[in-house]
Design goal:
Length: about 350
């Protein structure tokens, strides 16, 4: 007899503990999902802002490079149309033109970047990004339906109508039961206590959208059966529902973490991470990039002037085929750097070699 008395309270205590742990886990998962979703949104916004800043600040320099690039193509067109060369000389000049393109010094074809085109490039830069704030939350469609927003099929419309109808039925059943079992409807303490427990069960079923449970309580009342409030069956059911809910939330949380990792691995995401790191070190990477572009602009400007001089016959074919002084200087510098690297790998200093 004593064993039976102890068994039920122990079972209920175990269920209460399990329910409490599941509720804590549910709260933690919801909090983490919200935090991770905010982190993802902020990172995508940083990607957009950084892309906009790069294009805005670099547009003048890129436009200048594009103009010079176009000038060089035009100069070569004029050279081939107006200058008369021997067969070998013409091939040599054509080879210079091709080599400039192959080396990436000029574009393979005429290509100017107007402000409108730069804006188009900026728009294309982040194609395939994350959803805007007004798009469905992550995990939408998990339980069925994969249509894009605004492209809901007939099945989805029907499902929406069914959910709307169920919601109305649940509310009506809840109001009917609340009218019967609200503790304020009775005066004696024992009945108030009993109704309070029943209302807890009714509220739980209402919050979970469990129409079947609400109808079951209503039927039990109609036939005069005793309604279990937070008994073992009710607690087990709530635990099972919370377990399923938490499993879905875990999957949603894992997907969000994976999505954020994937975004950070993209070239744009890597650029944001590098930009943050540079900023912490007091470096402006965009300014450095623009400085590099401007340095290259000076080089390509010298090449353009050299080609123009050749067109105007201020430079001989022999001098032209040797290349502009600026490129010869760059090649010499590159050879010196390679030589220094080779000596360094061998553990020698330049002075030792000399």
């Amino acid at each position: 007899m004593s064993g039976k008395v102890l068994q039920s309270p122990l079972a209920l205590s175990s269920l209460h503990f399990r329910l409490e742990e599941l509720e804590k886990e549910n709260f933690w998962l919801l909090k983490q999902i919200k935090r991770k979703r905010t982190e993802l949104k902020n990172f995508v916004e940083q990607m957009r802002s950084l892309g906009t800043e790069i294009f805005t600040r670099s547009a003048p320099s890129l436009n200048k490079v594009a103009e010079i690039d176009k000038e060089i193509h035009t100069l070569f067109a004029e050279i081939f149309n107006t200058r008369k060369f021997g067969k070998k000389s013409k091939k040599d000049v054509e080879a210079v033109y091709v080599n400039l393109q192959m080396a990436g010094i000029i574009s393979p074809r005429q290509n100017t970047f107007t402000e409108d085109e730069l804006a188009d490039e900026e728009s294309d830069f982040f194609d395939g990004e994350q959803q805007e704030d007004d798009s469905p939350p992550f995990g939408a469609g998990f339980y069925g339906g994969g249509n894009a927003p605004g492209e809901m099929g007939d099945d989805d419309s029907s499902a929406r109508e069914d959910r709307k109808s169920d919601s109305k039925s649940i509310r009506k059943a809840f109001l009917r039961l609340a009218e019967i079992f609200h503790p304020d409807k009775v005066n004696d303490d024992q009945t108030q206590t009993e109704y309070t427990e029943i209302m807890k069960e009714i509220n739980a079923a209402y919050q979970e959208g469990d129409l079947a449970r609400l109808l079951e309580i209503e039927k039990q009342h109609q036939v005069g059966e005793k309604i279990s409030g937070n008994g073992e069956d009710g607690l087990s059911k709530r635990c099972n529902l919370l377990e399923k809910d938490n499993e879905f939330l875990k999957e949603q949380y894992d997907n969000l973490k994976q999505e954020l990792r994937s975004v950070k691995r993209t070239p744009e995401g890597t650029m944001v991470s590098d930009f943050r790191r540079a900023k912490k070190e007091g470096v402006d990477p965009i300014a450095m990039m623009i400085e590099q572009v401007e340095s290259e602009t000076e080089v390509i400007s010298s090449i353009r002037d050299f080609i123009r001089d050749f067109k105007d016959k201020k430079v001989s074919i022999k001098e032209f085929l040797q290349g502009p002084p600026v490129l010869r200087h760059m090649q010499m510098q590159r050879m010196e750097d390679l030589f220094d690297e080779m000596l360094e790998e061998l553990g020698l200093e330049v002075e030792d070699w000399e």
